[in-house]
Amino acid sequence: MFSATHSVLVIFLILGGTNGDSVNQTEGPVTVLEGALMTLNCTYQATYTTSYPFWYVQHLNKAPQLLLKGLTADKKVEHEGFQATLVKRDNSFHLQKRAVQASDSAVYYCALSDTVMEGCRGS
């Protein structure tokens, strides 16, 4: 049983789809004190310049949900206190939240897509 003052974030490595694309992210369980800054790293290699990184979140017993998408280089995108900036020169899209809460305990996935999905968060 975890103390109410901690938030546990479980992270898995997700590999990109086809054409030699790949994604590397923070691996394994990450424990962050409630109210602290959380950073989850995501770097990727893409065959095509039209590939875009995404962050998904999956809460216990729920389906994964889109959290953020990176479509514009060097532009910060935000949703529900989470933020990420697509840095094309580093091929990175690191996820951050300034004051993590117990309700943020979930599995976080960084993924890569070569198509833009309509109606996604971020820009």
UniProtKB/TrEMBL annotation:
<dbReference type="GO" id="GO:0002250">
    <property type="term" value="P:adaptive immune response"/>
</dbReference>
<keyword id="KW-0732">Signal</keyword>
<protein>
    <recommendedName>
        <fullName>Ig-like domain-containing protein</fullName>
    </recommendedName>
</protein>
<keyword id="KW-1279">T cell receptor</keyword>
<keyword id="KW-1064">Adaptive immunity</keyword>
<keyword id="KW-0391">Immunity</keyword>
<dbReference type="InterPro" id="IPR036179">
    <property type="entry name" value="Ig-like_dom_sf"/>
</dbReference>
<dbReference type="InterPro" id="IPR013783">
    <property type="entry name" value="Ig-like_fold"/>
</dbReference>
<dbReference type="Pfam" id="PF07686">
    <property type="entry name" value="V-set"/>
</dbReference>
<keyword id="KW-0393">Immunoglobulin domain</keyword>
<dbReference type="InterPro" id="IPR007110">
    <property type="entry name" value="Ig-like_dom"/>
</dbReference>
<feature type="signal peptide">
    <location>
        <begin position="1"/>
        <end position="20"/>
    </location>
</feature>
<dbReference type="InterPro" id="IPR013106">
    <property type="entry name" value="Ig_V-set"/>
</dbReference>
<dbReference type="GO" id="GO:0042101">
    <property type="term" value="C:T cell receptor complex"/>
</dbReference>
<keyword id="KW-0675">Receptor</keyword>
<feature type="domain" description="Ig-like">
    <location>
        <begin position="21"/>
        <end position="123"/>
    </location>
</feature>
<dbReference type="InterPro" id="IPR051287">
    <property type="entry name" value="TCR_variable_region"/>
</dbReference>
